[in-house]
Amino acid sequence: MAIERAGVVGSGLMGSGIAEVLARAGLDVVVRDISEEAIASGRTSIEKSLEKGVQRGKLSAEDRDAALARLHFTVDMADFADRQLVIEAASENEDVKKAIFAELDTVVTAKDAILASNTSSMPIIRFAQATGRPDRVLGIHFFNPAPVQPLVELVVSELTDPAVVDAMDSFATDVLGKVTIRASDRPGFVVNALLIPFLFSAIRMVEAGHATKEDVDLGMVNGCAHPMGPIALADRVGLDTCLFVGQSIYEETGDPAAKPPVLLSRMVDAGLLGVKTGRGFYDYS
Ligand code: CAA
Ligand code: NAD
């Protein structure tokens, strides 16, 4: 089945990036968020990113306009009715995601449509079980920024049909031009199981006064050739997302390295979520 019509739930950091990737690959894309304000913000970030792509010589002005014309924004889940693939990229909250999957199951008419989650850490099987088609559900985990990072992790639940995984592997590589890896449905999959303890170690160093945030970041950029340091990366991921991902991994594994640092919780309590709110560990205003 050639996938021509896709849907994305959520138009935040990841939803807008994923929608851009799909539209640039030639798909017709419906993007749904819960408010006109959220939709407007998602549309603006896609327009900015496409413009940056043009400036960097990654796509032509005609391709930018064609990609924008393939994107349709809505607050209505019913607009997913004719979609062949829907990727959920709403906030990292299990109840919110379960409700979305239950609704998608009733709204998306084609019974062979694929329903995917971009969750960073949560069990795919719990979303699959909220539907009547758990074999058609898997994790398709993009990395931030989605139009730039090549990786897509395919997360396979105990009930995912292997043919669905193979189909999404071909789609991600051949149509989207991404690099894929496969992971079982375990907390943090591959990349976040490694990344979150690293980010939390860096935050704990700052919290303990062992080093400044600037020096932690300079150390990893200049000592280990990371494109950005862990404190700046946590700000970019979103401190709320880092917290939710850590909580979810810690809850299931009890791994102390994934236990969110108190400083991180306090910053989220204070609404200091990083780049998306203009202030996190660093100031972006
Ligand atoms: N469209 C297409 N290409 C673009 C683009 C766009 N909108 N924006 C940038 N690019 C391209 C550039 O042309 C450039 O390509 P070349 O190397 O071929 O020249 C490349 O992307 C890098 O762009 P910039 O030099 O402009 O870099 P930048 O400073 O704007 O952005 C960054 C840098 C890509 C964010 C880089 O700092 C980086 O990779 N940081 C680490 C990001 C990371 O680790 N992400 C993973 C987070 S964890 C996660 O996502 C999982 C989770 O579940 C939480
Ligand atoms: P975000 O806070 O930027 O955006 C979340 C969006 O979901 C918001 O616009 C919110 O209004 C919307 N939303 C909430 N409930 C909704 C609903 N019922 N229907 C539609 N939209 C709804 O978060 P984000 O960083 O884009 O993260 C989204 C998902 O992607 C999370 O599961 C996160 O773990 C995952 N993820 C994040 C990153 C990252 O670096 N931030 C990377 C990979 C995966």
TrEMBL record:
EC number in record: 1.1.1.157, 1.1.1.35
UniProt-listed InterPro entries: 3-OHacyl-CoA_DH (IPR022694), 3-OHacyl-CoA_DH_NAD-bd (IPR006176), 3HC_DH_C (IPR006108), 6-PGluconate_DH-like_C_sf (IPR008927), 6PGD_dom2 (IPR013328), NAD(P)-bd_dom_sf (IPR036291)
3-hydroxyacyl-CoA dehydrogenase C-terminal domain segment(s): 188-284
Molecular functions (GO terms): (3S)-3-hydroxyacyl-CoA dehydrogenase (NAD+) activity; 3-hydroxybutyryl-CoA dehydrogenase activity; NAD+ binding
Keyword Nucleotide-binding: no
GO terms under biological process: fatty acid beta-oxidation
Stretches that traverse the bilayer: none
Site feature: Important for catalytic activity: 141
Domain of life where this protein originates: Bacteria
Pathway: Lipid metabolism; butanoate metabolism
Annotated PANTHER family: 3-HYDROXYACYL-COA DEHYDROGENASE FAMILY PROTEIN, 3-HYDROXYBUTYRYL-COA DEHYDROGENASE
This protein's name: 3-hydroxybutyryl-CoA dehydrogenase 3-hydroxyacyl-CoA dehydrogenase
Species this chain originates from: Brevibacterium yomogidense
